[in-house]
Design brief:
Blueprint lengths: L2 E6 L5 H14 L7 E6 L2 H6 L7 E4 L2 E2 L14 E3 L2 E3 L4 H13 L2
Parallel strand pairs: 1-2
Antiparallel strand pairs: 1-3, 3-4, 5-6
Helix pairs in contact: 1-3
């Protein structure tokens, strides 16, 4: 399975998102060597890739946190138990990764 972190230039959450993704994949016994980072640089790229903000966590081309917003070069917010945040919680990311194996 291929994993990709999609970000935009100057996203303050890019570094922490990469660390979080590596940690969640390792905890779920997924190979982190299949994790790449893709910089989204244009609105047309965002549209073509259905990119809903930075950072986006992708597995085999599928967004682990499907969004209903329009594709855009923007920051992304995730719901948490404390409102919204620039990153998902580690547990919600791990749950999303776990759901890949269950076909959910």
């Amino acid at each position: 399975m291929d994993f990709e972190l999609r970000t935009i230039r100057d996203c303050p959450n890019s570094g922490p998102a990469l660390e979080l993704f590596r940690k969640a994949l390792a905890a779920e016994e997924k190979e982190t060597q299949y994790l790449t980072v893709r910089l989204i640089v244009s609105e047309s790229d965002a549209e073509d890739l259905q990119f809903h903000g930075s950072p986006s966590f992708i597995a085999d081309g599928r967004d682990l946190f499907p969004a209903e917003t329009a594709p855009a070069l923007s920051c992304r917010l995730y719901r948490s138990g404390h409102g919204v945040a620039g990153l998902p919680s580690e547990e919600s990311l791990r749950a999303a990764v776990r759901s890949l194996g269950s076909g959910a």
